[in-house]
Amino acid sequence: MGGNGSQNIAMRFRMINNAVRRYMDHNSEFKAELENMTCSNGWIIGHLCHMEDLGQDVYQRDFENDFGITRSTVSKVLKLLEKKGMIERVSVSHDGRMKRIVLTERSREFGRKMHDELAQTETQLTKGFSDAELKTLCGFLDRIQKNLEQNDKPERRDNI
Predict the structure, then answer these.
(1) Residue 50: what are its φ and ψ, rounded to 5°?
(2) Burial classification of residue 2, based on how many CB atoms lie within 10 Å of its CB (0-12 exposed, 13-18 middle, 19 or more buried)
(3) What was the pLDDT predicted at 143?
(4) What would the 3-class secondary structure string for the chain be?
(5) Residue 89's beta-bridge partner residues?
(6) pLDDT, averaged across the chain
(7) What is the CATH number of domain 9-152?
(8) Higher-confidence position of 159 and 42
(9) CA–CA separation, 21 vs 26, rounded Å?
(10) CA-CA distance, 158 to 69, in Å (whole number)?
(11) By C-alpha distance, which of 138, 120, 124 is closest to 46?
(12) What are the extents of the domains in the chain?
């Protein structure tokens, strides 16, 4: 694949991304609920539900860090989820500028289902890997991400 001995890693990531989306689309037990949601929205709702279950407050910057997306992208997604009645932004007492992101009652059950489906997908993705192999793989993926972030131009990133 590719010239110069290159393994065409970027294309492989794209193919894996597509395969994960197809897997989730075909194995979703609540596809009708997803029709009004993008896959990315589902990931965010599932992640927010998981963090709430852990008793951890979640703020916009957490999505930026946890998903590796820009502030403007997170802002757009959160506005859309708020408009759909899936999340609320709640003021915190210690800083009037900060807003905690919380699920609405309407989205809490959806979030639990999404979190469960993400866990099932993770199980499928890691089937047949030893703990040591997964640790090595995650180390390689972290290094690839850092390589890309080091090359990111400051004007293309949102700074908090």
Answers:
(1) -60, -45
(2) exposed
(3) 93
(4) CCCCCCCCHHHHHHHHHHHHHHHHHHHCCCHHHHCCCCHHHHHHHHHHHHHHHCCCCCEHHHHHHHHCCCHHHHHHHHHHHHHCCCEEEEEECCEEEEEEEEECHHHHHHHHHHHHHHHHHHHHHHCCCCHHHHHHHHHHHHHHHHHHHHCCCHHHCCCC
(5) 101
(6) 82
(7) 1.10.10.10
(8) 42
(9) 9
(10) 9
(11) 120
(12) 9-152
Q: For residue 5, give the amino acid letter.
A: G
Look at the chain and count its residues. Answer: 160
- The tokens for 138 are 């995650």
> CA 104, 78, 23: angle at the middle one, nearest 5?
85
* Cα angle: 129, vertex 138, 46; to 5 degrees: 90
Rounded to 10 degrees, the C-alpha dihedral 139/141/142/143 comes to: 90
Give me the sign of the Cα torsion angle 150, 155, 158, 160. Answer: positive
